[in-house]
Protein: NADPH-dependent F420 reductase
Amino acid sequence: MAFDANNLPDVTGVTIAILGGTGDQGRGLGYRFAVAGHPVTIGSRTVARAEATAAELADLPGVAAPIRGMLNAPAAQQADIVIIALPWDGHADTLAELADDLAGKIVVDCVNPLGFDSRGPYALPVPEGSATQQAAALLPNSRVCGAFHHVSSVLLTDPAVAEIELDIMVLGEDREAVRVVQALAGQIPGCRGVHAGRLRNAPQVEAFTANLLVLNRRYKVHAGVRITQL
Amino acid sequence: MAFDANNLPDVTGVTIAILGGTGDQGRGLGYRFAVAGHPVTIGSRTVARAEATAAELADLPGVAAPIRGMLNAPAAQQADIVIIALPWDGHADTLAELADDLAGKIVVDCVNPLGFDSRGPYALPVPEGSATQQAAALLPNSRVCGAFHHVSSVLLTDPAVAEIELDIMVLGEDREAVRVVQALAGQIPGCRGVHAGRLRNAPQVEAFTANLLVLNRRYKVHAGVRITQL
Structure:
């Protein structure tokens, strides 16, 4: 089977909630999905912050679908697909609280458990192996995938950036959900979603973000990853 | 500082030993370095196997420097740069035995600690974090870097493949040694060596090989990695 980005499910108009959507990664993804015509809900722990972020994003050029803000729980309930962009610090506790709201949903974890010290970024140890595996353990009734770990929030949120050259590694056990997330990745111009393995191979994808941040700092870029030969 | 492959040390004619050089990865790297004009020594636990591999490689098209075979210890002693391509199984024991032979050398570990089962490849847990960190712990008097983890041995050993499109992640603490290894990576046509971080960020680079193997199987390719924007 050759890689074929055209042979993926149609995700036109699918609604997306982004939990922790007021952070850099969440804002950037929310903006790009709204530009691609997906109704987006920014979820947060406080309504005011969620609404402020939603209003800010809705004012950016090219937005082609409504962007709303609400608390994480109702945001999760009303969306087709839910992206987890929470700070790693509150990841486990927040997901445990939201397990019922997320039941039956395709849940896409994009959290990178990283630490930073005087020597730069590094991967934090995660008892479950990765943030995505932690999500899968806490959300047994959701269809948990990992994706969008390496995309630069700076590029996502810059309306002047027309295309982001990046292959998005989608991790997951549920092939159908993985293919939906691959299709969703393709909604960002320049991006391709590739199925890079099962959840047990998520830790290194998340941790590799530390290497990209090292490269960003060293070479003054917003580095991404392309898989060659695909 | 922009990425500048030209601003790296001159490694013309540097001699290279490959320990465990009779395996696929070792053979492939040995071939490409000999094509690039580097005298190569294939190291093995048995002289006969080392010599047989060396003779086989020397017969391939384009080889521009001598390829010899010898035991791992003398191979290590006489080379400028030593590449560790041992099976993960014997990695720690063999390096512990060779610590004196490797003292003062630039040592480049390219070992991927991987397991395989019915569900495919996966990263093995490593007490030190990674093969490269294990090497650094066992070889305190060597200048240990990690590199060449993702390069496909199939592409390396195929004389019909003129260029291998790949960015080689070089990990290390010793900036000067890292730059030498970056230059060495650039000796393989199509490859660039990039400094992707300190040794503590090696685990995910090694483990990511499992994701590439998943992609290889799924999409029938020999996948590599390019860092975008560099």
Chain A touches chain B through 42 residues (CB under 8 Å).
